């Protein structure tokens, strides 16, 4: 079976373009005898002539014209592919997939996306919700994850972002509003409205289970606005990051109390893999950190 190579396509296209072996050889950086030999070998393998040899020019035969037409199309596609791959190698093209923890207040996002698209117009920025941030990061389904806890995981690095605080969210008339802070033990017997599945949560793993604290009831609700409305209506209490509650607190819909005497502070992080060293990934992290610094100045 005949197998054509890219060099054969370039050879035919160059001779057809110049109609002259000497000029075609110069275009291909070959000697004229070397080009003549390659053409003869190709025609022998094909079993027919690609060019009529005249004193004035090399003229395409009918099958030669067919090969020349297809060669130009293929060579154009190869050149485009090489250009795209070169852009990927330089970090000038590609896709940045980010995923954000569901209870992170991403009010920085519009400004960062706008700045990112201005700086990297050839990079597609994709917000991708995933069920498990770290697992998706390790499996290369996403490139950057904004997460609220450093969990040791193979192939994952962390960049510190902004601080936040988990607080108890209470109806305005709840008895716990009389306390300066709420201890984890105070949650015993209460109706908890929580965004995460209980047994997979930090709250359960670090506090409820080790201290054998039993809730009155538990409601898994994956809608922050719904949780706030239900707490406001006196249907239970919740625990959420303070930054998510600024609007509700301004409207005096509910009350919050620190968890524990010293509060339950934590930090948000950008998690990424060590291989995510492309310029646009580094640039996104820089823009994100800059936006957070600007937020702090306005607080």
Write the topology of this structure.
Elements: H1 6-18, H2 21-27, H3 32-46, E1 51-53, E2 58-60, H4 62-90, E3 94-100, H5 109-119, E4 123-127, H6 133-138, E5 144-147, E6 157-170, E7 191-194, H7 202-208, E8 217-220, H8 224-232, E9 237-241, H9 246-250, E10 255-258, E11 264-272, H10 279-298
Parallel strand pairs: 3-4, 3-5, 7-8, 7-9
Antiparallel strand pairs: 1-2, 5-11, 6-9, 6-10, 6-11
Helix pairs in contact: 1-2, 1-4, 2-3, 5-10
Spell out the key features of this protein.
10 helices; nine-stranded mixed beta sheet; two-stranded antiparallel ribbon; D-Maltodextrin-Binding Protein, domain 2; Arc Repressor Mutant, subunit A; alpha/beta
């Amino acid at each position: 079976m005949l197998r054509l190579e890219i060099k054969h396509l370039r050879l035919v296209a160059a001779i057809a373009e110049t109609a002259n072996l000497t000029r075609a050889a110069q275009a291909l950086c070959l000697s004229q005898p070397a080009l003549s030999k390659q053409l003869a070998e190709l025609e022998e393998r094909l079993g027919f002539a690609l060019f009529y040899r005249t004193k004035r020019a090399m003229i395409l035969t009918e099958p030669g014209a067919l090969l020349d037409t297809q060669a130009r199309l293929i060579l154009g596609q190869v050149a485009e592919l090489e250009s795209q791959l070169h852009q990927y190698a330089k970090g000038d093209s590609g896709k940045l997939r980010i995923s954000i923890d569901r209870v992170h207040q991403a009010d920085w996002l519009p400004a960062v996306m706008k700045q990112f698209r201005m700086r990297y117009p050839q990079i597609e920025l994709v917000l991708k919700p995933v069920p498990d941030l770290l697992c998706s990061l390790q499996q290369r389904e996403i490139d950057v994850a904004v997460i609220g806890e450093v969990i040791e995981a193979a192939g994952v690095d962390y960049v510190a972002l902004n601080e936040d605080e988990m607080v108890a969210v209470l109806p305005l008339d709840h008895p716990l509003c009389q306390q300066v802070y709420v201890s984890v033990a105070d949650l015993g017997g209460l109706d908890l409205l929580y965004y995460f599945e209980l047994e997979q949560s930090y709250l359960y793993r670090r506090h409820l289970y080790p201290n054998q604290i039993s809730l009155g009831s538990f409601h898994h609700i994956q809608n922050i606005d719904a949780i706030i409305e239900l707490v406001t209506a006196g249907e239970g209490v919740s625990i959420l990051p303070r930054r998510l509650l600024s609007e509700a607190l301004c409207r005096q819909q509910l009350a919050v109390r620190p968890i524990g005497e010293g509060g339950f502070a934590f930090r948000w992080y950008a998690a990424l893999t060590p291989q995510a060293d492309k310029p646009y990934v580094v640039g996104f992290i820089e823009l994100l950190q800059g936006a957070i610094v600007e937020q702090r100045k306005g607080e």
